[in-house]
Amino acid sequence: MGRKVTVAVSTLNQWALDFEGNMARILQSILEAKDMGASYRTGPELEVCGYSCEDHFREPDTFLHSWEVLLEVMMSPICENMLVDVGMPVMHRNVAYNCRVAFFNRQLLLIRPKMAMCDDGNYRESRWFTAWTKSLQTEEFVLPRMIAQHTGQQTVPFGDAVIATRDTCLGYEICEELWNVRSKHIEMSLAGVELIVNSSGSYMELRKAHITTDLIRNASFKAGGAYLFSNLRGCDGQRVYFNGCSAIALNGELLARGQQFALQDVEVTLATIDLEEIRAYRVSQRSRCSTAAGAADYPRIHCDFEMSTHSDIFKTSTPPLNWPNHTPEEEIALGPACWLWDYLRRSGQGGFFLPLSGGVDSSSSATIVHSMCRQIVQAVQLGDAQVLHDIRKILADTEYTPDNAAGLCNRLLVTCFMGSVNSSKETRRRAAQLANQLGSYHIEISIDLAVNALLGIFNAVTGLTPRFKTQGGCARQNLALQNIQSRIRMVLAYIFAQLMLWVRNRPGGLLVLGSANVDESLRGYLTKYDCSSADINPIGGISKMDLRRFLIYAKDKFNLPALEGIIDAPPTAELEPLQENGELQQTDEQDMGMTYAELSEYGRLRKQSFCGPYSMFCRLVATWKGDLSPKEVADKVKHFFRCYAINRHKMTVLTPSVHAESYSPDDNRFDHRPFLYRPNWSWQFKAIDDEVDKLQPIYTPSSSAQLRPSSEDLLLSTQRSSHLDDSKHSSPLSSASASIDVGISTAAGVPLPGAAAPGGGLSKKPSGYSKVHVNVLGKIKDRTGIPV
Known about the structure:
This protein is α/β, with parallel strands linked by helices. It has 25 helices and 21 strands. The C terminus is likely disordered.
């Protein structure tokens, strides 16, 4: 009897509900695995229909078409004399399950349902599927008639069982079961299962790729045996990018691993395993043997098949390897670029249109498109026929073959500097230099004519002309003048995106790219329906700090020296008039009242550490004790949560972006919270104030320099935020401004809490507010002058 088996795990770029394409990629992976000598092939989770079908899993059609695809695959001669399993939804006794379906030579062997649902992060599996809870049990599943007619089988075992061949035994975990605290691979290994198979739908997050590899290695180290992990890769119709990394581990060591990022639709990863190494490893662990002797027995489905051969003595086992993980900068360069490629080729559009301001954010979006072009050229040069076919289809040019990234970028990316009288020469120059080095088709326009036309309409109706604050206008006028510039840019972006390919004598239109980062979304530092509103956003899940590091990496990696000036320049919206010498008087961090480093800290504590205002204060008062007093920390935390609450409504219209950061505020599915808050957080802030009263008397100031904005700066900058609109494109409201009517009241004539009462004094506050709390609330108003 042989002792060495060659097994294959598949990485597939599937697409939700693309049954024809999904079937073709499954068959291609089986063919490649067979040609490379594998006797067993497994694939990713729900590969037949695509993982992101979501509420389509409630439609009978999805189940019907999945069975139809399974029948085509199972009957294909490609699958003869090979043990194969595929992932698909199955309805058993009117309950939907996420399953692996195993077959051999046109006979179904087992339907194994998932036993632990994943409902964390972007996952919502329990909305569509139910976990199988009958451990070590199977039931008879009645096969659809179309299957029975071809296989001659009426039923097949359904449940928690393993497959025993003549020479080994394999069992299944499905995705979340590996992460679960009661992973099934322990029970299966104790019952003699030697090959543990996991089909997964794991998505990318920065700095997280190593976790899956560590889990696979540790599972095979603790339990002994081989662990086979197959994952999806690419954008299958949602905001996540499935990040590949299919792998095979043996006794704690990694034998083979697929790529994390790639444009190829099918990647097969193989390893040859000596079964005797598994047995020797396990029998040497005496405590494991004692436990296994009393382990429960798994139902075994017998398959009359030898995965090994009798003449394998000269076959070499796959040696262990060391696989380096990508740096976060490399992940940003590759992951969002691959996601953009999938979106572009599946959307039917002809390229991208990007408003390029010369700042870090829009430059990052442009550089990611350039990275995509580099990957396309490389894939074509390596002979990827699918990539070549797709790019020719996108460009409507059947003869075109890309040979350099800049030339391809010129065809795919149109960048546009949308200047105004408030734009500096430096940003215009930086945008033009970067576009030239990237190779994009670059244009420059002035938005002043459009802005003046809209202001003319307003003047014709009202007889009034709003002015900037520096020109004598009030805060509301100042903000309106900034927002009109922002929104005009969005409108112009879409008309140019629709018509630029017509101008260039090509069919189709362009996808508008956004460039708002995750921190600005969290803070609400963007204008609703400005250039943050787009078709898709490659950087919407990435922090400002990471984007800066990415541009530093890209400057050298992609030979883009223009990025140096962009990295060094202070972030600014350039929506207010320049100073007399032509220099800026508006910067993002001054507008926000917090640094981007602080904003990342708030975001991680809010989302990853599940901190409300009080808990965040308690964490930061210790972290920042060397720089800030408890009172100053309290003011910063309050400032953040006011801004967050006032602007949370903007997340309901956030442009779809590739998910990359675990503190993303994406309202669509990842960060489920209200979008209408009580912005003064009265109960929560009172708890902070009580704690400050206890801590302030015993606080000893540090001699270290104050690196963060002062509390007064925070109070002033808070007034940029409001539920109506705010932000990247707004400027401070001064609470002392004579143009703000503090006495604004409700329709019934009753002053709002904190508004000026008759006689000039503040209206009486509800009981329970400390003096500090009253003073803080009295200073902070939204842009209409209403205290928050």
